[in-house]
Structure formats: structure tokens, C-alpha cells
Amino acid sequence: MRKISSFPGQAQGTALKIVLAEFPEGTFVYAPNHDLADPSMGMQIRDDQNRAPVKTVARYREIMKPYLLNRNDLLMPPVVFTADGYLLDGWTRTEAARGLNWLTYPAIVLDDNYQGAPEALVEKFHTLSAMLNLTHGTGLSTAETERAILLVAKNIDLDAPGAVNELARKLQISRSWANGLLSAREANERAARVGVDLSGATWITRTHMADLGNWREKMTNPVFKALLEHVRDAKLSTPAQRVLAKQVFACDTEEEKLALIAGEVSSLGNVTNGHHGRPSDAAKLRQALGKITRYTDSPGVPVETIAGGSDTHVKTIDAAIRTLYAIRDEQLKLDHQRLISSGSK
Questions:
Q1: Which phi and psi (to 5°) does residue 104 adopt?
Q2: CA-to-CA distance for 228 and 234, rounded, in angstroms?
Q3: How is 221-247 classified by DSSP, letter by letter?
Q4: pLDDT tens-digit profile of 210-236?
């Protein structure tokens, strides 16, 4: 049977996902008693140890056991094959059926072969496999999920209108998750292009890279490279990276941005904690002040609104201003001394 409306209810949802993956209705068939998959023939986005988890297989066997003679009443979805027998989705169900000594299991079979398929069709197979694995059956691990999403998004242009929304819709994931993964992918690819070595930099998270990808329009390659290298070498947290990035973006020219980052690099202290370098007190102060300068355009936001609290609020602000002026004077004094010292050499 080829019309989706004639499929059993539990197969119609799978069929609609197949259509969403750009295999039109009429290009696949429902087979209520399809031979079980050959274990050597399949497309698998899961890690090998998760292909058919033993505990899940056992649980599926118990669910499936009463349906030996009435497969159409089984509420579990069908597995999905290519025309030449490659399994795109359904290893756990297949192994449960094999454990019950079943010879067949309900399946949807595409008209297209996997062997010898052109690259565009292979990518459609991958997309369909990822969609089905993400939206039903045994849950993927975080790493498997991210790998599946990036596999589907292989040729997606992050800047194309509606690209992120379309990916999220296809895979039935949140837009923020899709955007974060694509942005991180873009930043990693850019890092490779500009020669930033991130091997071994395990403290740089996907959130670090997603932020950098989201900021792609705000940074030239030299600024991106300098910022990422500093984040790597100083082991900045994501909040610290965001504070520094905001200061960088406030600069008008590339030269000013690079100079600001260079200042951060030069002020990086030699104090260590185990193997982790720490920013100097000067760098920490600039990061803290970044949280204050965000109110430049909205000074009324941090005003104390609790009755009776304004005196303490104003006194704290005045004390901070006096301290900042004292630090500024010390900085100017040091700069003056350096100038005199360099002129006498």
C-alpha cells in the first residue's frame, strides 16, 4: 500500500516524517511483514554500543510479545528500509523481534536504493535517519543528538533566511538548540580557517563557540582570531568572554579592537592555580566594569527603587567612583614613569 491514509495509524506518523524529509507520498510502500534487517546493512547515527541497548531490547520484547499473530495492532512504529535492504531506522525494534524469533516486522520501504545512490540522495537518507532517531524510539545521547543535527545541517547556510527555523521544524527541536549548534559549527570552521589551534582546549565549550558564531558579523578575521586565542590561553569562562566581547564591539575600528584585546593579553598574570592561568587584577577590573558600562544608554535601570535603600546605594556608588579615580591616577602615574624611563634609554 502506498497511500498514507491507508497505512495503519502507527505507521502514518512515520510516513509523514518521511514526506518531511522530501520523499514524496507514493515513493515508498508499507509492508506489514518485511524480513528483518541484515545486521551488516544499515545506516546508524548512534554510537555502536547504543545501536540496540540490551535493556531496551528486553523491554521491547515484552511489549511486542502479545502481537505475534496480529502485527497491525502493534502500536510501535514500523522500521524504515531503502529498496535494497539498508535499514535507516529501527535497530532496537529489529533486535527485539529477532529475540522473539520473529522472521518479519512491519516496515516502510523507500523506492530508492542506498548502494550507488548519488550524494544528494545519500544526504536525504541521512536526514531521514536523523529525523526518525531524534523524534522517536530510544533517546539519543547528547553527543549523538548533536552529531545527528549537524549531519542534517551539513549543507545549511546559517545566513540563509529561515534556515535555522527549517532545521528546527524538520528535526522537531528547539530553534535555540539548532541555532547554537550551527553557530558553534561556523565558529569552529572559522577557527580552522584562521589557524587557531583548539586541540586540547577542553575548557572551551560549545557555548563559547556558539557565542562566537553568533557574533560573526561583528568581527573581522583578525579580531576573531585574537579574541579566541585569548579566550583559549586565559581559559576565560563564557561570562568573561561575553564581557570582553562587549567591550571589543564597543570599539569603532579594527585597530582599536585589536589593541583592546592585546591589552588583555599583556595584562594576563602569571599567577597559576594548578595548570590554570588566571587573569590579572587589571583584567578582572575591566571585566567587572563591563557589567557597569552596559547601563551607559539606560542609567535609570540600576536605580534603587526600594524605599530607604537609596542612601546606601548612592554611598556605594560614590565610594566606587572615588576608588576608580584613585586607580586611574595610579595608572596615569605608572604610564608617565614608563614614558620617562623609555625616553632615557
A1: -135, 165
A2: 10
A3: HHHHHHHHHHHHHHT--HHHHHHHHHH
A4: 999 999 999 999 999 999 999 999 999
- Residue-wise pLDDT for 148-182, tens only, equals 676 666 666 666 777 778 777 776 677 887 788 88
How far, in Å, CA of 240 to CA of 233, rounded? 13
C-alpha cell at 296: 551607559
In whole angstroms, give the CA distance from residue 67 to residue 27.
Answer: 28
Domain containing 340 equals 305-345
Q: Examine the fold and report which residue of 152, 167, 194 is the final residue of a domain before the chain moves on.
A: 152
Segment holding 273, helix H or strand E: strand 272-273
Identify any residues that bridge with 110 across adjacent strands, giving them in sequence order: 28
Q: Is residue 292 part of a domain?
A: no
At 282, list the grid cell.
587589571
Q: How many domains does the chain have?
A: 2
Cα 184 from Cα 147, distance rounded (Å): 12
What is the DSSP-derived secondary structure letter of residue 42?
A: B
pLDDT at 290: 76
pTM for the whole structure? 0.56
43 assigned to some structural domain:
yes
Residue carrying the nine cell digits 620617562: 340
Residue 315 within a domain: yes
Specify if 235 maps to a domain. no
The one-character DSSP state at 50 is G
**Total Cβ atoms within 10 A of residue 302:** 13
Query: Cα dihedral angle (248, 150, 199, 184), rounded to 10 degrees?
Result: 10
